[in-house]
Structures are given as C-alpha cells and as structure tokens.
Amino acid sequence: MRRLTFSTIACWVASFLLVGCNSGEPVSHPTTPADAVKTNTNRDKPRPFARLFIQDLDNCTLRWATVRYDDKTNQWSCDAWSSVTGFPQLDAKRQKLVQMDVIDHLLLVGVRDDADGTFQSGWVLVDTGVRYIDHGDHGHWNFRRTPEVWDQRLDDQQGNPAHLYVYNNKFFLANDRRNGYTRIDPARYEKAKDGTIRKDNPRFIVGGGNHITLAVVDDKVGYSCWIDGGGPNKGRVDVTPIRDQSVCEPAYSFHLPHGGIHGATTCAGKVFFAPAAGICWVHADLKVDGKDHKPQVHHIDLGQEQEKPRRTGAFTTHKHYVLFTTGKADQAALAILDAKADQPQPWFVPLPVPAGTQPVTPILADTAYGPLYAFVFCDKVKPVDNIQEVLHVIDLDPDRNGRLDDAKLIKTITVGGSAVEGHFGHHDLAFDSERQYGFFTNPADKTIAVLSLKTLEVVATFPFEGKPTALCVVGSRETDD
C-alpha cells in the first residue's frame, strides 16, 4: 500500500480549500445509479432478523424470505420471496399443503390430495438454513445457508395426512387413511461436509382412524383418536406403546362417551380429548402393560349453546395449563384449565366476535418483555357485508404470579381478510425465536404484517406473491459472534 506523507496531505487540503472558496460552488458528489441500488449484496443490507416460511395456497408451494431490521432507521425490509431448493412441484388443483412446524432448524410440512391419498400425499422435510450458534454463556443466529429439502415421502401410500404434532422434539404426522401416524426424529438428520445427508428411518405407529388427532406422552405412548360420530369406532381412542421397532401396534383401545373427536393433547400427566360435547380426559398410562386396561374417562361439561353441547376442536398448552376456544357469537370465549388439578375445571375469558366470524385456536407467546400473551383470530366463516376480522390479545398472567386465573382481554387489533375454505385459508401467526415480534398472514389481502410484542402495534406490512396462509418463523436478530 502506498503511504501518504504529511506534505502530500497538506497539498490536497490546500487545493480543496482553494477550489471550494474561489468557485463559490458546493463540492458535488457522484450519485449512486438506480440499478446499483437493486443489485446490493447482503453485506449492504441490514442484518437479518428472522426467516419466514409461508404456504402459498394458490400455487400449493412453500416460499421463504429473510426479514431485516435496520437499527439506524428503525425500518423493516423483506428480501424477495424464493422457492425452497428441491421442493417438489405439486398439483395446485389436486393437492394442498397442510400443517407444518419447526424443530431446531428443520421444518416439516404435510401434503394432502383430493383422492384419499391415492394420488400423491405425504410430507417434505426442509432445512431452513438458520442455525443458533451456542457459545455456552451466549449465542447468536446465523442465516448464511440457503433453505433446501433434506427428505420427503410423496406417493400413494402415505395415507393423506392432515394433522402434524410436535411432542418431545419429535414430529408426529397423522396418516389418516392408513389408520396410524409416522414418527420423525429431526435429531437423526445431519449434513456432512461432502453434502451427503444422514437421515432418520421414520417409524409407522398404528392407531386412530379417518381423521386422526393424537397425543404422545414422553415419547413412550401414543393416544390416537377416531373422528367417527357413530358406529363401532364412535369415541374410540387407541393406545400404542412407542418402541424401537418398525411397526408399533395398539396395546388396547377405549371409548369416550361422545364421538366426533377432533383434538387431543397431553399436559401434567393427563391426556385431553375434544369430542362433540365438552372435554374428556384420562390419566396417562406410561407402562401400557395390559390389553384389558380400561382407563377411567373423566368428562368436563362446557355447557350448551343453541341447544347443542359446547365443544372445541384443538388445544394449546403452556406448562401445566391447557387452553382452547369454545362457543360462537356472544358465547365465544378463551377457556383455560389447570391440568395439575385433581378434577380440572375451566375458567373463561369472554371474546367479542364480529358478525360473520368465529374464533380459532389460541396461539401463545411468552414474550421477551415479560407478558405471556394468547392471540386469537376471529376469521370469516359467513358472507357478511363490511365484515371486520380481528386479532384478540389476552394477557394470561397480568399480575405475573405464574397463575393464569386473572387472564383478561387487553386489546383487539383489526387485521386484513382471511380466505377460509374448509380447513384452509385461515390467518396464521408465529414469532421470532426470542419472542420480540410476531408475523401474521392476511390471506385475502396477500400481505404479511409485523407485530411488536412490546407495544402490540403493527409496525410493518409486506406484500406476498400468492395467497399466504400458514407460516413458520425461524431465528431471531443476527448479531456479531
């Protein structure tokens, strides 16, 4: 490198002063060409804040983009939406992406067809490209890898999955038409330096039928349900030990007093079910040592609505609490019960429901700022003029004592439109890994909104190429090592 002497610098300064003073004109600077702005590299952009994966309902595909936040300007930006490398080309007229979830850096999404699984159904496992680098006393997020498919099963033998669950850091995907479910362990996947991928050997577990909901306790036993509202499988629950063998068979079955089961979860040593009337629960059987075992089934009455029993369709858990929505119109509420109680009984937070909408399953966020929130969308279910869809925010523990008995509605946020068609087209909401911001989809508006978990205000909105529905968010603010 050429070194500059003091005399050389002095000459430059003198020349600058002479030109500037004598001309009377300000010193001009070259402008950046417009096309140069478009071709900025990632080094010129703000640091990544999170990576979003969003289902495009119109095109039956999965798209991703990195979202960025500029600390200097307080501005959000979103990279161009991209396809996942290796993601299969699906038939948008005959197939749908169903539930998806993330464990560590791996995302699993189910695929369903219109022919009970005889066309092509199954699942796709995606490496999100995001890593948390743990240094013991601290860590940081890394977004340097490009998302790509690591594994998949798509054929006419996968049983047309709908529901996906995560229990004990394992994926459990219900194979409805095979009357069972698949256990996939993301910890068994690893990519070597030469590019080869070590894969799990997913296990098929027999149990449940038609439209399966399930709970898996401690990765030892699965409770899988039949949705039948009548006949011999009405209210049926199959109990299957999870063992290291290619196929696991049910040890025994029992029946709830009501059929139409469309929800199951486990919490505090109990298993909860959502039949057509109220809630049922049993104590979890971790030994599964007898085919003649008949568990005592407990029933929780949720009351009546329009001369029909109130019910729910899905659960969310937090520590030893189970949460769900129930009721419609002026009887809609968020319900909370303490699973540790000997005889759990729910308490309710009333939810105002705009005409033509219905509350969906609560989504929880234990925020970086202290509050524990439940978020409940009211999505359009009926054609109503000037319909207004909303997102309710419930503070689950206002006095921060760890109990949720003082939960209350604190805010209602107006959101864009949903595009509900059966199980598809709902709003969805997910959070960065450090729970500082939420990101939610507005399917009908084709936008993604950014929600501050500190102020509960929408701080940015991004357009989406397609119809955004379900989403996953991976990682959080990238920092220096």
How much strand content do the residues show? 35-45%
- Based on CA atoms alone, the radius of gyration comes out at 26 Å
How many helices in DSSP terms?
A: 2
Structural class by SSE content: mainly beta
Q: The biggest beta sheet, please?
A: 5 strands, antiparallel
Walk me through what this model shows.
This protein has 481 residues and is mostly beta strands. It is 5% helix and 43% strand. The strands form eleven sheets. Strands 1, 2, 3, 4 and 41 form a five-stranded antiparallel β-sheet that branches. The radius of gyration is 26 Å and the shape is globular.
Key terms for this structure?
5-stranded antiparallel sheet, mainly beta, globular, 41 strands, single chain, 481 residues
Short overview:
By secondary structure, this protein is mainly beta. It is built from two helices and 41 strands.
Architecture blueprint of SSEs:
Layout: H1 6-23, H2 34-38, E1 48-56, E2 61-70, E3 75-78, E4 82-83, E5 95-103, E6 106-113, E7 121-127, E8 131-134, E9 139-142, E10 148-155, E11 164-167, E12 170-175, E13 180-184, E14 190-191, E15 197-198, E16 203-206, E17 214-217, E18 221-225, E19 236-241, E20 247-248, E21 252-255, E22 264-267, E23 270-273, E24 279-283, E25 298-300, E26 304-305, E27 308-309, E28 316-318, E29 321-326, E30 333-338, E31 347-350, E32 357-359, E33 363-366, E34 372-380, E35 390-395, E36 408-414, E37 429-431, E38 437-442, E39 447-452, E40 458-463, E41 468-474
Parallel strand pairs: 16-20
Antiparallel strand pairs: 1-2, 1-41, 2-3, 2-4, 5-6, 6-7, 7-10, 8-9, 11-12, 12-13, 13-16, 14-15, 17-18, 18-19, 19-21, 22-23, 23-24, 24-25, 26-27, 28-29, 29-30, 30-31, 32-34, 33-34, 34-35, 35-36, 37-38, 38-39, 39-40
